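Hi! If you just cloned this repository, the fastest way to understand the data is to look at a raw example. We've pasted two of them here, unedited. The first protein comes first, obviously.
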Amino acid sequence: MGDFRNPLTKSTHFWQIRHVTYTKVECEQTYAPVTCANVHGTFSAIINQAWGRLMRNLLQGVMALTLLFFTAISAMANETILTVSGIPTDSGALRVQEYDLAQLRDIGEVSFTTTTPWTEGEQTFTGVPLSKLVASLNLQSGVLMATAVNDYAVEIPMSDALQDGPIIAFLRNDKQMSVREKGPLWIVYPYDSDAKFRTEIVYSQSIWQLDRIMVSD
């Protein structure tokens, strides 16, 4: 056991601190009060240093996680989530248009609340109306071949791109949808608004996990 009168001895430093801290009365009865005070002061200094290091490490960890979070959000916002191909041009050539989330939202977004055959209770969907997407690409007629990430595809007639019709939803209940949650994009009709949207054909056209659309005649 170390000598209490030499509280800074490296080999007994922490034992002395713990001993003095938890048996202060014994220390003062056995040794000079100034010795105990010095040991207690050393203990307080080490605790303060350790606490300072802990808080700095925690702060650095929080800052790193915050940076990582916003970097991921930024990358997600700039990631292509929809590709539209087969778009006719004045020259007769066909072009491709890619959209990230921000570009889709810039077309104009709407929200509606409806039930669906695949979810429980009312759900609020937010997305770009199919009619606005079609208009922004100057599409007049034809068929939209909508394809999911697993290559499942459905044909949606251009005539379905009506005002107050389907939307390409990117939010469900104000949250982005993962692939497991039928995202990142889901063509959703306002099923509760009209019986014409509650048919097997419409249900089959309500493709989720959408990531590309091809325009065809």
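Ok, and the second one:
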Amino acid sequence: MTRLQKMVLKPKEQLVTRLFLSPKLKQNLTVLSYSTYDLVAAMKDLSESDPFVSLGKSQEESHNLEWLKDSESESLLDHLLAQVRLSDWNNKVKKAVKLLIYHLADDGYLRTDLAEIAQGAEFSIDELQKAKEFLQTLDPCGIGAKDLNECLLIQAEQKKDFDQVALQILLADDLEMLADPQKWGLTQFSEKQLENALACIQTLDPAPASEYTTGTNTQYLLPDLIFKVEDQRLTIETFQAQIPELLFDEQTFQELKGQAKERQYFTEQKQRYLELKNAIEQRQQTILRLGKYVGEYQHDFLITLQREKLKPLGLKETAKALDLAPSTISRAIKDKYIQCQNKIFSLKMLFPRQVAQDLSQERIEYDLQELVKAENSLEPLSDQQLVAIFAKHGVELSRRVIAKYRKKLGIPNSYHRKRS
């Protein structure tokens, strides 16, 4: 063995801190992440493998939220269509966006050429291009991109204070250069700038649709929570019409256990029942707590269903408010739906991204529309003037962001809005 090999194989001590979850906690977290379909399937599996367990009728629970003041796993297709249904876009735009959604690949990319989609469709290429811009505003961020660079660019433009060098590289479609350090000397940027840009781009998600199932077998959306509106007050119900009650035959269990010489089998069967039953109860309690908190926070939206009423809400702040881990909140909203005023949509929709200060993208789009409606048609506001108006109200936006939202809303630039 050479001296170099000995150096390479030299043992090295390292102190590592690891978090180990107990089997009970693992099961609780797994059950929490289940959709209604997955939960019922797990209950059926237990009833078929455990001779003492059976499934009974479901029970509904209602919880009054008068304290609110007056003022199968989810597929990518389900998630996107639910957002389109809830949007305030006109019917033609909705139809065009839906058409593009049906052409998405399983990973959420739109690789089919718009000219090809336009053939035999009722939309022109320009209309489909506009629909694509609408599509790319939906969650998950990065959806509908033609390639990796566009996917990352969509996400980068949504992030506040994103590294400017990284943004320039994405705008120039020059990821290949960034991936090859040997080419760094040919650019205008320093090695340190490129290292920072690379690190920043690596925080983006190249596969934003990865957490969604690709199958199309989900035929019906079952809400986990139901919000009812009456006199500007909300009532929340945990929807359990599809969740059967888990029953245990205690009498037969005791009789057979008393007659048996080996009792470990019986103990294990009851333990499996108790663990799943407790996990289900914990799941329902967590979802209900989350529903109450979100119901209070997004009260104005749930009363009106106007998207501009949505307030930015993050997993970390929700976790802090409920004294839970952010990963627990993430599991609690995964594959969960809510029903409100006869509409069903993903619980994730109540967690919009923050664009600036305490404003969501929906609110900024609404304010932008109102400013354009109120402008002098003889001297319409330029994008830079709109930036200045938002800044006066403490909202810092770039001209690029204003232009992006304006195009998404179908608002022409100031030159084309001017009336002679």
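That's it. A detail worth noticing about the second one: Residues 3-8, 62-72 have pLDDT under 50 and may be disordered.
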